[in-house]
Design brief:
The complex is a heterodimer of chains A (433) and B (575). Chain A is α/β, with parallel strands linked by helices. Helices cover 42% and strands 19% of the residues of chain A. Chain A has 16 helices and 16 strands. In chain A, strands 6-7-8-3-9-10 form a 6-stranded mixed beta sheet, sandwiched between helices. Chain A has a 4-stranded antiparallel beta sheet with strand order 2-1-4-5, covered by helices on one side. The N terminus of chain A is likely disordered. Helices cover 76% and strands 2% of the residues of chain B. The relative contact order of chain B is 0.12. With 575 residues, chain B is an all-alpha fold. Chain B contains 20 helices and 4 strands. In chain B, helix 1 packs across helix 4 and helix 9 packs across helix 10. Classes of the chains: A alpha/beta (433), B mainly alpha (575).
Chain lengths: 433, 575
Amino acid sequence: MTATASLNHDDNLLQLQNVTKAYGREAKRFIAMRDVNLSLRRGEFVCLVGPSGCGKSTLLRIATGLNPATSGAVLYRGQTLNGVNPYATIVFQTFALFPWLTVLENVEIALKARRMPPAERTMRALKLIDTVGMNGFESAYPRELSGGMRQKIGFARAMAMEPELLCLDEPFSALDVLSAEALRGELMELWLSKSIPTQAILMVTHNIEEAILMADRIVVMGKNPGRIVADIAVNLRHPRHRKDSAFQTMVDKVYTAVAGETKSEKETLGTAPGQPGEKRMLPDVRLEALAGLLERLSEENGRFDLYRMGGELTLELDDLLPIVEAGELLGFLTVHAGDLLLSTPGQAYAEASILARKEIIAGRVLRLPVIAWIYKTLRSDDNKRVARDYFYDKLQDDFGDLTEKLLDIAIRWGRQAELFAYNSDTGELFLES
Amino acid sequence: MRRFRFSPALPKTPAFTPGDGLILLGLVTILYAGTRLAFNAPVVIAGPHISLSPLALPWYALFSVGRMMAAYFLSLLFSLFYGYAAARNRTAGTVLMPLLDVLQSVPILSFLPVVLLSLTTILPEGFAAELAAIVLIFTSQAWNMTFSFYQSITTIPNELREAAAIYRFSFWLRFSTLELPFAAIGLLWNSMMSWSGGWFFLMAAEIFHVGARDFRLPGLGSYLQTAANEANLRAIVMGIASLVLVIIFLDQFVWRPLIAWTDKFKVEMAEGGEPPASWFFEMLSRSWLVKQFRARVRRPFSTWIDGRLRRLSNGKVATPKVVPRSRRPSWTRIVPASIFAVAALYGIYRTATLLLTLPAVAWGQLGIGLAATLARVTVSLLIAMLWTIPVGVLIGTNRRWANLLQPVVQIVAAIPATALFPVLLLVLLQTANGLNISAIALMLMGAQWYLLFNVIAGAAAIPQDLRHTTDLLRLSSWDRWRTLIMPAVFPYIVTGAITASGGAWNASVVAEYVEFGGQTHTTAGVGALIAQATGRGDYALLLAATLALASVVVFINRTFWLRLYRLAEERYRME
């Protein structure tokens, strides 16, 4: 049941070869994912982890055939997948139960779609509901159930398909901590005891501990564009315990892979609008949150483990990584071997007074090519006043659908640094005298 | 407060697009064809005899409801097909949705004469009048229902859609378990709105009567008109009473049970608020007969249907394929488009030649008429705002007043203004400038409720803590109105006013030209021109006036109202 199982080709259930996913056309083309290669063998439980926006969920939908790949091949049992994969099903983050159908009807609908006769389908549905321990709730509507119960029905419905490949899209992240823990245990019991016909599981999660608790293999994805950056085998015996040192080592390893290493300044910042080269999107982060992180880091003498930092600040990885990214962009910190390192400007900022902080931020924010370009454009204007639409048009070639958001973030940061101001009534950015 | 959701669906597109121009040209062509047909309409049309006997009332009520039902089912079918086509096919959607938007802002009643005259040439007169009424009601009901259905289909949560795909639902299963249930609540509320709009048009169609052409239909509307004509007070009271009874009956036995039933189709997962209640629905769901019906008839029937469908598909499961879509225009698109273009060009040419026969004096009259009607619409809207804003805010912010006034307001608002028009004439025609005043009064009665209900909804939506803040700051009542109430209610006033002005324009055709007590009364206005042209058989003027009215209204909507609506959405929306 581990990654070291036979490498025999026939064991491959799913294979993705050089899969690329792009949206839009020509100039406005946005590459969501580039050259992804991944294979999934029988008996394997694989988790996809990575920062938000790296295309984990998209990859899951490509594997099930819900979304077509722009280029590359998706093979299932060695055959090219055309349309929805009939051997696969998905359990959704938001359960995707039909609110107007009862629990029984929600499970039955999957069998009805398979055109099973009514008597047989009711019997099977009742049995599945019993399997997930929800008997007694057959005639309840989803809105009468708790999140955990709803997801159990989601699993029962997925099981009705008798899927060979079970895809899970963050199935526990909309649940409270205890329900999630219980449901994870139940799923692992069904999976490890082989009491379900499922041959392989592909799960997307942003919770690294969850991935290590359950998976045989963890595939780490990175973004800009979405790609696979690491493939880590988890050779721990079930049942796994969070407090084990081997477990902790593994957590650190995966965290390190997800956080990556701070790249050179040139690569981190990207190029200015209108210049050749890769552009960088600004992370959607409030600068106060970054200030909080820097202060915390300064208390730890400028070096702290990223994984433990997440735990102490009770921040999910998805929330912590954008703040770290903002810190890297502004040159306040670097990431190295799973640790956060405070830089000299970062140290100065953490110790400065409110007024001094504004000044430091102003200097730092001007490092960012997009903001520097906006500032320069405003300064060279006779009235020191330029319409937002002007910037929008110029940026759209590089940022496409993200332009609106990029401008919002740039304006927010520029305002906080008191570099420029924005009047939403007139839609103009201007320099304050 | 869910009862008051009167909001027109507005597009996010800029004011005018080339597509709009194309659609307007298409409309011109259709109108021209109608007018062409109307040339052959008989000069004298005898109307039906209307009996004022109370015994006739149930029959008349039945006739009126029958017309409404026929039109409603037509609208429902139309909305399902049209909305579905527009939502599922992106290319179709880019044409169908702007078309719908133009159609819903055109004043439909101005088309009544053209529709009536052209139908009388191809069909027997009585039947033509019936059909024209149904077509007219249809055109007043269908658009908002279609918009609602379209919007529901396009806003189905992604994961539910993906679930339907991954479980490989057939077309029918997807439609019956996902799309229709998801759209049910919106469709129901819009159906109710359509019915109240439909009553307005039905009454107008039932009393339409120009010169020697009597298009009246036996129904509650014509009963009321005849009663008013003969100044028969007893008959007037009985007519209005039966109309109100019919409306209340439908509300209690059709709409409220349906609202209670569709509550299960709401998507919010949180169990919140009072569920809508209906005594009739509760009685039904507890009744032995209904339970028997479900167990013995409905369930075997649906099982049988499922079995049939399964046998049809022979147990085979179709695997959907990904078909690369070609970006090049295909013949299937070019051919119909060019046929349409040629037909439209020809229509425009013929329209232009017909319009050129119109003397300059008539054009002058048309200009004056448009200005006069615009003035009336504006005055009626201003009066409506003057009273609905304070009263609406009072009801919306004060629970005690709300409990007291709401039931009364609901019943009064349910009476279609056009039904009361003959009564209004009876009183007002004796005074100087009476028709002018009663025209404004009719527009006011048609328009004010949309405004009132929207203001109530807006005032009720003002957050409690903002109201407390104004109390704590001890703002004067003027400052309170200026800083809190007006900005908060503004978006609702705009949405209400858009619908209200549409209603006012519509009323002009009925309001500005009346035959009453054997006499013809007219006042300057584009509506009067349309009616006069119909009476005289002046087809060039009829076409010109109808076109002018439609274009002016679409223009005002797109330039004035849409802009206000955007401002309201961007600046003053509280959510």
